[in-house]
């Protein structure tokens, strides 16, 4: 049984993490991370989950009875025993989540009880001390976070001190799955208590800088735990570990979402503190899954304006990622967001010129393709297609930019010869269709000197499809061709319809 000693004889001072018990989970009970389904596999896991839920519910029942009679000591005793069910190593992350959510619901009830206890005269400082006497570290830290939430709300101590205490104490759990869920709980109970601008917890001693530091520290520790999962267990279980890691990724990414909601993070703070710290962690972890997911998170959760103003820093991280990271998707999504931002209002277009967005993106894509000579042609063409779409949205009057993109694509195609990959040919069609859709005028497309050069690399059937797209554009827009040179250039583009695969006349 968990034992709690009298609050009149505190063992530990408050808010001095370096003087608190330095017990770690490893020193309590060495555990090598594994979620193998021994014997009967999934059936065994269901039994373990059922046993965990049964134990949790039984102790929750006694906890409720103690809450109803305002028996603090028994409430803490049975809540600690209830939380001990989360110490299991036998469940996959998916099943562990089911157990965690049941414990989470019970902890919300316990938090309400703690609030009522403080209203009845119980010292929140003594309560914060008392829960640190739980015998096992995992229940102790869940209880500490729960009381810590009430402690911050009471404003008897600066929010930053309590938050710093909690985020550092959680280092005691180094088991990846248990540690991730514990820190996710810490993030959940603290997100409405951050000392943000306009928050009731902001003050002389608490600023938005403290809020940002707390979230960044929790994010860093969670990412380390998440990455560690990849390196524990036999090589033959790599695929299963990757599946489990993907199930847990949102626990880590949620920290970036919390940061994006902090009102006090302006562009300067994002550029000088938030983005460099996040990118440092992403690059240094050297993990393919984490790098791809977290780069995508940055692109999705932070404002378009911030991406534009920090484009150089964000793009500078791309060549530092692992070669196996799907960088084409990351950059394509970034360019898609920036394209939509440019299309949202003409007033933002000067910002793109100011930061030289096209030049930076073009250089970044060139470096990525150069650094990955084995990148499939589909990936390279996808990047150029996204860049061309971006260029047509942001700089519709700069045909030289569009032609430069087509020229870079042509150069890449020269190194591989005729394109036979079906996905790549479809992407080339999308690339060549973009100017037609933007300008609604084949005459403008004919001004792009590299347009026919790229089209040369389509196979016969796809050339016919592209020629048909051009004809449909001419008919739809009633385009008039004003000179013999342009007619000749147009026929050159449509030669796929005029010749069959043997090169004889088809029309």
UniProtKB/TrEMBL annotation:
Superkingdom, taxonomy of origin: Eukaryota
GO term, biological process aspect, one: retrograde transport, endosome to Golgi
Pfam families found in the cross-reference section: Vps35
GO cellular component: cytosol; late endosome; retromer, cargo-selective complex
Name of the protein described by the UniProt record: Vacuolar protein sorting-associated protein 35
